[in-house]
Amino acid sequence: MPLTTPSLFPPESHVFSKFPSRRSVVHSTRGIVSCTQPLAAKCGIEVLEAGGNCADAAVAVAAGLNMTEPCSTGIGGDMFCLFYDAKTKKVSAMNGSGRSGNKCTLETIRNSLGLKEGESGRIPMASVHAVSVPGAAAGWYDTVQRFGSGKVSLEQILAPAIRLGEEGFPVSEGVAYFWNKSEPQIRQASPNGGEMLKKDPSAQNGVRAPKAGEIMKNPNLAKTFRALATEGKKGFYAGHIATELVKVVQDLGGHLELDDLTHHLETGTEPVEPISLKFRGQKVAELLGDKTTGDAAQKQDIGLELWEHPPNGQGIVALMALGIIQELEAAGKIPTWSSSDFNTAPYLHAIIESLRIAFADAAWFVADPNVSKVPTSSLISQPYLASRAELFDATKASSNVPHGSPAWQSSDTVYFAVSDSEGNAISFINSNYGGFGTCIIPAGCGFTLQNRAANFSLEKGHPNVLEPRKRPYHTIIPAAVTNLHDGSLHSVYGVMGGFMQPQGHVQVLLGQVVGRWSVQQALDAPRICIGSGMSQSGKEDLTVFVEEGMPAETVEGLKKLGHDVQVVTDMGRSQFGRGQIIRWTLDPVENIGVWSAGSDPRGDGAAYPL
C-alpha cells in the first residue's frame, strides 16, 4: 500500500455547504492569493503573472491591503511571515516587529501616564505611548530580499498598490463599516486626520469616512510606497517620512526619536526559527495493523506538524492548546474525537479549557527573547503539556488559571496566504493592532501608526515589562502545516483578530482534522472566542463568546458546564476573526499538485487563482 495521508486525514468533503456560506473551494495548479480584499488580491496576482513568486506577491498584497483596508493594517504597523520552500521542504520564519524607543523606560512611561508607585495600569490603546517603531516597511523589503524570486523589482511589486492610491478604489462593505466607526478617533488623534478621510465639501471640515462603493484616494500613501520602492528601507526609516513620524509622536508627548528608526534600519527584520508541534502522529505500520514489515516507509510517522512563529509572537498558545488536547486524549480524559463531536459542548469545553491554560502561561512568559528569557522549548514539551492537562475538569469550567513553572532552558489585523506554481507558499500577517492603531498620522505620509506597545506590561519584574529597544508580546501569528511522513506542505493558514488568533488556529485546523471539512467549510463553521489575553483592566475575562449559528444544544451545554456564554451576531461576528487557508494536494492520476483555497465569509475578500 502506498504511503498516503487520506486514511488518517480524509479528503475534502463533497458537500457544497455545511454552514451559511455560498462559497466553494477555489482550485488552481499555478498559484492562489487568498485575502480579505479583492483589489489587494489582484495586486498579488499581477506580480505572479509578471514572474514573481509567492513572497514577491505577498508584499504586493500587503501594500494593496494597506490601501484598501487601512482599518486593519498598514506600513505603520508590524508583520510576521512563514515561508515554505518546496525545494528544501523547509519552513522559515521572519520577525518584522518593531521595538520600543530607547527613551521609553518603565519609569518614563509610568510617569507620562500619571501612574504612582505601586499602582498598576496599562498603556491605553489610543495613547501616543502605545506607538512602537513600525516594522512592516523593513519586513516587506526583507521578505523580497530573502524569499523573493529575484525576477521582479520592489518597484514592480508595489506598483499595483501605488496605482490604487493615485487613481482611487471603491471601498468594500466591511471596511466602510469600520472606517465610519473609527472616524471620531481619526479626527481627534492627530492634526493630520484628514489624510485618512474622504474629501467632501459638505462634510465636517471637508472630510468624512468613505461609504461602501465610494471612491477613496490616498496619494500620500502612494508617495510613501514610492519612497520605499526607489530608496529601499532608507526611504522609510530616514528622510522625510522618518522626520514626520518622529515629529508627530513627539508633538503629542511621545518619546520616539530618529535614532530609534535608524536602529531598526540597521538591525532590520530578524530571521528566526519557527516552532512546531506534532499532532496525531502515528506509525503507518501500526495504523495498518502490520508491525512486522521491513519496509522502512511503513514505519514513518503520518499525521501533521503545526508550525508557528516563535515569541515574541503568541503562536505558542496554539501549539500549547493543541498539545494539551492531545495529552487529554492520551490520558483518556476526552475521547479521540470524530466528526460527530465537532462543535458539541464537550468538544468546545475541552478547547476552551486548553486555551485558558495556554493563555495563562503565554500572558506571563511570552516576551522578546532577545531581552527576556522565554522557556519556549519547555512550554511545548510533552511532559510539561501533560502536567498542564491535569488542570482540566471535564465536568465544569475553570476559574482563573495560574501560569505554570516550566523548566528554564539556555483585533485587528490582515492575514493572507499566497502560493505559486513552483510549490512554494507563504503565510503572511500584517497589523496596526487595534483598528487604525493609534490613528496618529505622520504628515503627508498617508498611514496611521500602530498601538502595539499597549501590549507591554508596566509591572516591574514581568518578563514582558516595558524596556528600551524591546519588542512587546505580539498577537499576530501566521501558521503553516506540513505532513509528518515526508515534510511536504499540507497548508498555510491563519485567522486574524488580536487574541482570537491562536483560538482560530486551533479551531480551523481541528475543523479539517476532526470535522473533516474542506478548507472553506472549516472557515465557514461557527467559532467560539474566550475572553483571555491581556485586557485593558488587567483582569482575565472568563466570558465565552459564541458565534451565531452554533447549535442551540451546544450553547446550552456550555452553560450547564458553568461557562458564561454570550452569543454574538451581525457585524459583531468580526470578533471571531477572518481566516484564509491554502492547502496543497496531489492528483494521484495526473501526478500534478493542486492548490485548494478558502476565504473567510466574515471578510470582504475571497480566494483568487492565478
Written overview of the protein:
It contains 18 helices and 21 strands. It has 610 residues and is of the alpha+beta class. The strands form 5 sheets. Strands 1-20-19-15-14-11-10 form a 7-stranded antiparallel beta sheet. A hairpin with a 5-residue loop joins strand 14 and strand 15. Helix 2 runs parallel beside helix 5. The protein is globular, with a radius of gyration of 23 Å. The N terminus is likely disordered.
Count of domain modules:
2
Which structural class best describes the helix and strand composition?
alpha+beta
Would you identify the CATH architecture of the largest domain? Orthogonal Bundle
Mean pLDDT: 90
* Distance from first to last alpha carbon: 35 Å
Helix content: 25-40%
Number of strands: 21
Low-pLDDT stretches are: 1-17, 282-300, 407-411, 533-539
Task: Compute the number of helices.
Answer: 18
CATH class of the largest domain: Mainly Alpha
- What share of the residues does DSSP label as strand, in percent? 15-25%
Rounded to the nearest angstrom, the radius of gyration is 23 Å
What order do the strands of the largest sheet run in, or round the barrel if closed? 1-20-19-15-14-11-10
Main sheet attributes: strand count, strand direction, barrel closure: 7 strands, antiparallel
- Describe the global form: globular
Q: What's the CATH H-level homologous superfamily of the largest domain?
A: Gamma-glutamyltranspeptidase, large (L) subunit, C-terminal domain
Per CATH, what is the topology of the largest domain? Serum Albumin, Chain A, Domain 1
